[in-house]
Amino acid sequence: MRILDRASLFKRPAPGDERRVQLIAANIDTLFVVTSCDQDFNVARLERYLVLAREAGVRPVVVLTKADLSPAPERFVNTARSLQSGLQVELIDGRDPRSAARLTSYCGAGETVALVGSSGVGKSTLVNTLTGSTSITTQAVREDDGKGRHTTTVREMHRLAGGADGGGWLVDTPGMRELQMSEVASGVIDVFDDVTAVALECRFANCTHADEPGCAIRTAMAEGVLDPARVERWRKLAQEDAVNSFTAAARRSRTGRGGSRR
Ligand SMILES: Nc1nc2c(ncn2[C@@H]2O[C@H](COP(=O)(O)OP(=O)(O)O)[C@@H](O)[C@H]2O)c(=O)[nH]1
Ligand SMILES: [Mg+2]
Ligand SMILES: [Zn+2]
C-alpha cells in the first residue's frame, strides 16, 4: 500500500455541496486527527493537518489517544486547543469503550469520519473499539499516483452500530509520511488567525516581520501576546505553500491543464 498524499486524501469539494469533499470514494464530514499523549505529539504536524482540513472544508477533531499512559494528559489537551480557535480536542483511552464513546457524537447516522495520523497512534484500535466487530468493509480503490500510473490502495470503511438508520461510517487510512503544503493559503490564514490578525497591523502590507519598522508581529512577540515558536511555524508553512503553489501554477500553465491539481 503506498503512502497517501494530500491530493488523494482530500479532493476538491464535492459538486453541489461546498461543505463536503470527496475522499477517495466517500464524502467525509469530519477528520479525526489522531495522535497519542507521548512523543508522537507534534504541534507542527497537527497544524498541517488542521490547514488541510480547513482547506478541504471538513471539521477537524484532534483525538488524543493513550491518555492512560500519560501522567499529565491535560497538558496535551491544552496545547492542542491553542492551535486553532474553537478546535475540538478529545482525550481518550482508545481501548476502553466507555472512554471512546465520547467520540460517537461525531459519527451519527449519515456522518462519515476519516481517521488520519501516524502509524501506531491507535487509529485501528479506536475503530475496533467504536465498532466492536461489526460489518467491516474493505474497499479497494484505484488511484492515480500522479505519474499516470494507477495503483490500488485499500480503504477500510467501518459501519457503526446505531439507531434505526444505523450509525455513521469510519474510514481508516494508512499514515501519510509527509504533509506538503500547496495551494492552501486560505487554510493557513484561518488556522493561524491569531497570527494573521496581528500581521494586518504591520505598517507595511508586505512586511516580512524581520526588521521593518512598525512590525506588529515583532511587537506582539516582544509583549508575549504571540508565541514566537508558533509565529515561526506559521512563517514556514506560509512560505512552503507560496513556493509550492507557484510551482504548481507554473506547471499548469506549461501543460495547459487548467484544472489539474498536480
Ligand atoms: N495504552 C493504550 N494503548 C493503546 C491505545 N490506543 C492504541 N493503543 C495500542 O497502540 C498500539 C498501536 O495501535 P494501532 O491501533 O494499531 O495504531 P494505528 O497504526 O494508528 O492503527 C497497539 O498496541 C494498541 O493496543 C490507548 O488509548 N491506550
Ligand atoms: Mg492501523
Ligand atoms: Zn510585520
Give a brief rundown of this model.
The chain is of the alpha/beta class and 262 residues long. The protein contains nine helices and nine strands. The protein has two domains: 167 residues, Rossmann fold, CATH 3.40.50.300; 71 residues, Probable gtpase engc, domain 3 (Ribonucleotide Reductase Protein R1, domain 1, Orthogonal Bundle), CATH 1.10.40.50.
What is the H/E order? HEEEHEHEHEHEEEHHHH
Number of helices, where a helix is a run of at least 4 consecutive DSSP H or I residues: 9
Bound small molecules, which ones?
A: guanosine-5'-diphosphate, magnesium ion, zinc ion
Share of helix among residues? 25-40%
Mean pLDDT: 81
Shape estimate: globular
Largest pleated sheet: 7 strands, mixed
Q: What's the total number of strands?
A: 9
Text of the CATH class of the largest domain: Alpha Beta
CATH architecture of the largest domain: 3-Layer(aba) Sandwich
What is the number of domains?
Answer: 2
Main sheet strand line-up: 5-4-3-6-9-8-7
| Class per helix and strand makeup | alpha/beta
What is the CA-based Rg, rounded? 20 Å
Multimer state: single chain
Describe the structure.
This protein has nine helices and nine strands. It has 262 residues and is of the alpha/beta class. The protein has two domains: 6-172, 3-Layer(aba) Sandwich (Rossmann fold); 185-255, Orthogonal Bundle (Ribonucleotide Reductase Protein R1, domain 1). The strands form two sheets. The chain has a seven-stranded mixed sheet, sandwiched between helices. A two-stranded antiparallel ribbon has the order 1-2. Bound molecules: guanosine-5'-diphosphate, magnesium ion (MG) and zinc ion. Guanosine-5'-diphosphate binds at residues 65-66, 68-69, 93-95, 119-125.
